[in-house]
Amino acid sequence: MNCRVDKFAWSVRLAKTRSQSAEAVSKGKIRLNNQHVKPARDVKMGDTIQVIRHTATFSFKVIQLLNRRVGAKLVPDYIIDITTDEEREKLKMYQAAQNVYREHGTGKPSKKDRRDLDTFLDEWLDD
After folding, report:
1. Where are the extended beta strands (E) located within the chain?
2. Domain segments of the chain: what residues?
3. What CATH number is given for 1-83 in this structure?
4. Which of 23, 49, 56, 73 sits CB 3.0–4.6 Å from 91 for a disulfide?
5. Which of 98, 40, 31 is nearest to 59 (CA)?
6. Which of 41, 70, 46, 73 is nearest to 60 (CA)?
7. Distances (CA, A) of 3 to 22, 47, 49, 62, 89
């Protein structure tokens, strides 16, 4: 049985949609055996799939192939997560750095906030 990389990544829920999966493979965000491949490349049992998210690389070993999308509870029957703790820490550090940037829920500045900031910067630069 053959299965394309993009279809397999979508089937085991590494991507939300099949088109997003194909795009991620094309851009090198999803790799097969640590190599940049095209979305149509076939996956074999025992292959390793790497998913790059922000600064971390998550690795999964293919146990069994499938040709349809499965529920989240059935995903461990098809792939094993072999990601190192170091890579998980990289993602946590990235997320922590993003949270320092702006408090959760504050959103982007309003028009009034933007005008106030522009006025402040203009006055500060003129002095």
Report:
1. 3-4, 30-32, 42-43, 48-53, 56-62, 79-81
2. 1-83, 84-127
3. 3.10.290.10
4. 56
5. 31
6. 46
7. 13, 12, 13, 11, 32
**Quick one: pLDDT band at residue 100, thresholds 50, 70, 90?**
low
- Residue 1's pLDDT is 78
What is the pLDDT averaged over residues 8-28? 96
99: pLDDT strictly greater than 80: no
Kindly tell me if the per-residue pLDDT of 104 is higher than 70.
Answer: no
Q: Are 27 and 85 in contact (CB under 8 A)?
A: no
- Name the residue with higher pLDDT: 106 or 87: 87
Question: 58 by DSSP, 3-state: which?
Answer: strand
